[in-house]
Amino acid sequence: MALVPLTVAVGVAWAAVTDNMFPTESTGSSCVVSTGSHPPCQTDNREVYFYMDSSGEYKLESEDRSTVNAAIDGEYRPTDLAFHYDSSPVFEGSAETDIIYQEGSTGLPDSAAGRTWCNGVSSTHYKCDQQYIRIRGNGRYTYARVCHETGHAVGLQHGDYSTPMLSKTDSRLGCLVTPSTDHNDLGSNNRENINATY
Question: What confidence score (pLDDT) does residue 31 get?
């Protein structure tokens, strides 16, 4: 009887390069309600309801709405997060809409193309009930910028807040690099951290 070599496929588990999901060793463990520059908080659950401002000062133009949808479809829906559009947003109470996208520059430093901030900390102190994303108009509402700020809204951080710490420009951070221009891909490190968290 001839012996036949048996080949066994061994799966190789991919491990994240760095932990850049809030909280890390480089940040505090409590989410902060602020429009300032604080580390991002996690969203309060895997079911993410979002709204794009449709009137007033922070209204998104049609092209910008398409960009938000494209970035969510291309980068975040393939993760363990479940994104849903909320056509009747809730701005206070226990069932707030998770992410509110706005277009405008009010409250943004001159050097910032966009910012994400927590508007209401949940009962678990490292999660946020509602986060705002405000991105400047005039060509700054790009796929890469939406990918970057949405990453913050689900808890992803820059390289200098990660463990181990990475450069803010390390390409393994995908669209969470700073600046995010032309970095359209969420990247495997961020997907791994999202899926491990949610």
Answer: 85
Say how far apart CA 118 and CA 139 lie, in whole Å: 25
pLDDT digits (tens, 9 = 90+) for 45-65: 999 999 999 999 999 999 999
* Sign of the dihedral defined by the CA atoms of residues 149, 53, 198, 188, in that order: negative
Residue 29: band (very low, low, confident or very high) from pLDDT cuts 50, 70, 90: confident
Q: Which of 93, 104, 90, 123 is nearest to 35 (CA)?
A: 104
What pLDDT, on a 0 to 100 scale, did the predictor assign at position 122?
81
Instruction: Check residue 165 and report its DSSP letter.
Output: -
**Helix (H, G, I), strand (E, B), or coil: what is residue 49?**
strand
Q: How far apart are CA 104 and CA 59, in angstroms?
A: 8
- Rounded distance, CA 187 to CA 126, Å? 24
User: pTM value?
Assistant: 0.89
3-state secondary structure of 85: strand
DSSP characters over 86-145: -SS---SSTT--SEEEEE--TT--TT-SEEEEEEEE-SSTTEEEEEEEEE-STT---HHH
Please state, in angstroms and as integers, the Cα–Cα distance from residue 58 to each residue in 52, 55, 104, 133, following that order.
9, 7, 6, 11
Residue 77 DSSP label: T
pLDDT confidence of residue 170:
95
